[in-house]
Design brief:
alpha/beta, Rossmann fold, Arc Repressor Mutant, subunit A, two-stranded antiparallel sheet
Length: 329
């Protein structure tokens, strides 16, 4: 597989902004494929190479569900849990990023050459801080863990033994001020000794994708939601109109600045953004709406609707039920 890699320097505008925030970001990264939009939420899923079958199935399931919600799945392309995470993201129709501990031209392990190709074909990326023909050393696989953690808003750990690279990734994520989520397992199972240690150290115990979404929702404000790519930029809309639209329908009252009688600003209305179409569809319906119904009403793409619903769910404006999505009471 030819590398065709692009080098991105630390000072470049195209350098991942979250990665730039860590204490020791790589001076440059090499990228094959296309890094997804940085406004999308990146989340890491990591664990042991010697994963149980149940652990692999769980990693694939969580990755698939998060990918369907618009998350970009990041992992290290290793056997076991990393492979399951990438495969789950692809199955969910999402994008995934593989971070190598080798030169950008060398897929390791070789068994994952096919998976690497599928990641690129699906619009994802393979990245490394090591250039073409760079020699490989064992310590590089620990070094790459800071990139996995640094790219992401959170790291999910599934099956981490007492000595595991996943523990390094999780602890680095915590040092960087990012969330760490742990799936626990049988008390005596060696694959969970490290995971349970992380829980004792303060990592969040979760048991489902919904737990992850709800925990990420903590502390999320309307202003933060409005920075999502699903909405127009902060400069486009007045704060009064933004606050009006983020309020629950029964609390909104009259539209700000007399919009019903004419709006002087030449910028688009907050209500006319793509997220506004989704919220209006939900507000007008007496019953929860399926994604297919929302697509039919709004005429948006599946990716746009999934991303918007993810943003609204994380920030507590919309909730998912067994019958579909609805505005929270």
């Amino acid at each position: 597989m030819q590398s065709n890699a692009t080098a991105i320097e630390l000072e470049d505008n195209s350098y991942p902004p979250l990665l730039r925030e860590i204490t020791n970001p790589p001076e440059q990264i090499f990228v094959r494929g296309e890094l997804p939009n940085y406004n999308l939420p990146f989340i890491a899923i990591v664990g042991t190479r010697k994963a149980t079958e149940g652990g692999r199935l769980l990693a694939k399931k969580i990755a698939k569900e998060l990918a369907e919600k618009g998350f970009v799945i990041v992992s290290g392309l290793a056997m076991g849990m990393d492979t399951a995470a990438h495969e789950g993201a692809l199955k969910g129709g999402g994008r995934t990023v593989a971070v190598l501990g080798t030169g950008i031209d060398k897929i390791y392990p070789a068994q994952n050459e096919n998976l690497a190709g599928r990641i690129l074909l699906a619009g994802g990326a393979i990245i490394s801080e090591y250039e073409t023909n760079a020699p490989g050393f064992k310590w590089q696989f620990l070094e790459r863990n800071r990139i996995v953690a640094g790219l992401c808003v959170a790291t999910v750990v599934i099956e981490a033994p007492e000595r595991s690279g996943a523990l390094v990734t999780a602890r680095l994520a915590a040092e960087f001020g990012r969330e760490v989520f742990i799936f626990s397992g049988p008390a005596g199972h060696p694959n969970y000794k490290g995971s349970h240690a992380l829980i004792r150290d303060g990592a969040r115990l979760v048991s489902s994708t919904q737990d992850i979404l709800e925990d990420l929702m903590d502390g999320c404000s309307g202003a933060e939601l409005a920075e999502s790519p699903a909405f127009v930029s902060k400069k486009s809309v007045s704060e009064a109109e933004r606050a009006w639209f983020l309020a629950k329908p029964k609390e909104r009252g009259q539209e700000p600045s007399g919009r019903a009688n004419g709006w002087e600003s030449k910028t688009p209305s907050f209500r006319e953004t793509k997220a506004g179409f989704v919220l209006d569809a939900l507000a007008d319906s007496k019953t929860p709406l399926s994604i297919d119904k929302i697509l039919e009403i709004t005429k948006l793409t599946p990716q746009e609707v999934n991303q918007i619903l993810t943003d609204l769910t994380i920030c507590g404006i919309v909730e998912e039920t067994s019958l579909g999505y609805r505005l929270k009471n």
